[in-house]
Amino acid sequence: MSTTRRNFIKVSALASSAVGLGILPRRRTAADNTKAAKPLRILILGGTGFTGPFQVRYALERGHKVTVFNRGKSHPGELPEGVEQLIGDRNGQLDALKDRTWDVAIDNPTSVPVWVRDAAQVLKGNVARYVFISTISVYADNSKPNDETGELAKYEGPDAMKETRDTLIASQFKLYGPLKALCEAEAEKWFPGKTLIVRPGLIVGPGDQTDRFTYWPVRIDRGGEVMAPGAPADPVQFIDARDLAEWTIRMVENGATGIYNATGPDKELGVGQMLDGIKTALNSKAIFAWADAEFLEAKKVAPWSDMPVWVPPRGEDGGLSRTSIKKALAACLTFRPFDTTARDTLAWFKTLPPERQAELKAGLKPEREKEVLAEWHKQHG
After folding, report:
1. 10-residue averages of pLDDT along the chain (381 residues)
2. If 0-12 CB within 10 Å is exposed, 13-18 middle and 19+ buried, where does residue 325 land?
3. Which domains does the chain have, with CATH numbers?
4. How far is CA 54 from CA 58, 92, 117, 246, 342, in A?
5. Are 65 and 42 spatial neighbours (Cβ–Cβ below 8 Å)?
């Protein structure tokens, strides 16, 4: 994993843990007019982060009974009516989970294997199935596209069960992929044949406080000349948090187990198509200045952080945006229209306080973009 992407994962992971429930209502589809064939008792570990609130709301719409387990510190009182909240902490305070039964548990926030082990020891025998939300960062080699059989990153530390959130951060998230891979193994160990592992790619949409994708709708909406990365055909992959959350609930309803990469869209998308799609969705008059990867590297404009979503199609992360999702598509992973994601993301961002809107957490700062554009024009006339 490149240093740039690792550092950006660090920012993303920290910010996503603080996302509140103040999200836009989800646009309804025909599938929402039906209830699940069998109501389930669903335990969501977390439930107040980025994707968790979407899982909660969709599960309720489908007729399920939902319980969330968290510390109760993030936006208390904002859970939808009818949701049971259990208070505890993954760091050893799990008593609220004892002597209870659920049909399935969905583990959203876990990044260290001891959290899976401790929760599983309490839930084993009381939960029929376990869903672990992982990441495509578990793969050892991202220079080529991976399917679910790709080799996983190896943990090389002294004792994975002694790793904590703090040690993960101290490693600058070098341990992120290896520890997530061990979390998967721990889930399968305690729930053999009863585990569903979902490996998302870049998760985007309204509610994402990391600005991993948000930068582009905000910047394109501002208009003018916009620095664009690489070549228009360079592939990009991402998934709307709502699509990921809703598909996860449907997979739970279907009793699915196994491992699935979950990103999108369903067909290869170039970064040029993505930016043009945002421009069209927002009726923007922005103009794109396409800077190749070599120029951006020379000017220290980093992929993922300065140029979100995009990574060069060659190099150690060159296969990242070509991750195979054939298995998930066969399991009915679906995507809402891209213009919906673009417009909803911008609309949500504009509800944030002015001081937050003034400080995007990803992408080039306006003054820095102006400098780089000036250098680009010097070289290109």
Report:
1. 50 42 42 79 94 96 97 73 94 95 96 97 96 97 97 96 94 94 98 98 96 97 98 98 98 98 97 98 98 97 97 93 98 97 98 97 97 96 75
2. buried
3. 3-380 (3.40.50.720)
4. 6, 27, 26, 7, 17
5. yes
